[in-house]
Write a structure and sequence with these properties.
Distance between the termini: 104 Å
Structural class: alpha+beta
Strand order of the largest sheet: 3-4-6-5-7-2-1-8
Strand content: 15-25%
Helix content: 25-40%
Largest sheet: 8 strands, antiparallel
Number of strands: 8
Radius of gyration: 36 Å
Shape: globular
Order of helices and strands: HHEEHEEEEHHEHE
């Protein structure tokens, strides 16, 4: 009986000891899990104000209107506000560079045609004598590669780059024009499509039939901005009295500055 009792006690002790070990292991595991969870929760603290501000700034920078360049074109006939397209970066950056340099200050609108366009930017126009033919200046400057975009077309009020007859249709580095234009009919647009192998969208057709433009220049000259205000000034300049070379009889000078 003594031996049996001792064995029984030994077995009982072993069972109790095993249960104790399992219980301790479970407590340790639970403690470890809590500690890990505590550390995990600690990493999910609210972002500090500076970080939130940074995230907001990053989101703002993704806004398609963010970073848009606008210029104020001041003329003897009034002020024109123009937005430059970010989708034509070569022309945008070149124009901004020249504006910052004061390149356009005191230059003339040397060619104006009602229901067509007004053109300026010839550096020779700054000190040109009355009646002198203009439009060839700036040829010694590096041309800007064409940036044709089907979505950028010659509707009334767009800013586009002038050019000579180079086969690449690269733009003048400095001369530009603003479209005055006129409305076109469906028949006229159909003829342009057939003759030039292009297709206008319904939206483009509607614009050309209502506010007008110069569709025959599409995909031939780079459009790189548009007028936001001052269309009446363009109409006034385009109708100015002029000589046989379409140069206004009274000088119409310009000053261009960036809007910040």
């Amino acid at each position: 009986m003594v031996i049996k009792f001792s064995i029984f006690n030994a077995l009982l002790f072993f069972v109790v000891f095993s249960l104790s070990i399992n219980a301790n292991a479970q407590v340790k595991k639970t403690t470890t899990t809590k500690t890990t969870n505590s550390k995990t929760k600690a990493t999910k603290k609210p972002l500090p104000a500076k970080s939130i501000a940074k995230v907001k700034t990053q989101k703002a920078n993704n806004d398609p209107l963010e970073g848009v360049h606008r210029v104020k074109l001041i003329t003897d006939s009034g002020i024109i506000i123009i937005r430059l397209y970010d989708s034509t970066p070569l022309h945008r950056d070149n124009f901004v560079k020249l504006v910052k340099q004061g390149f356009y200050d005191s230059l003339l609108f040397h060619r104006v045609i009602p229901e067509f366009m007004i053109q300026g930017g010839d550096p020779q126009s700054k000190n040109a004598e009355s009646g002198a033919m203009l439009g060839n200046g700036g040829g010694d400057m590096t041309r800007i590669p064409a940036e044709f975009k089907p979505s950028l077309y010659h509707k009334k009020g767009v800013l586009a780059a002038a050019r000579d007859g180079n086969p690449e249709k690269a733009s003048s580095a400095c001369q530009f024009y603003i479209v005055d234009g006129k409305p076109f009919t469906d028949e006229q647009l159909n003829q342009l499509e057939q003759g030039r192998g292009m297709k206008y969208t319904e939206e483009q057709r509607t614009v050309y039939k209502t506010i007008g433009g110069t569709p025959h220049l599409d995909m031939g000259y780079t459009v790189f901005g548009e007028v936001e205000s001052g269309m009446e000034v363009i109409g006034k300049i385009s109708h100015a009295a002029k000589d046989g070379n379409n140069r206004p009889l009274t000088d119409i000078r310009m000053h261009i500055e960036l809007i910040k």
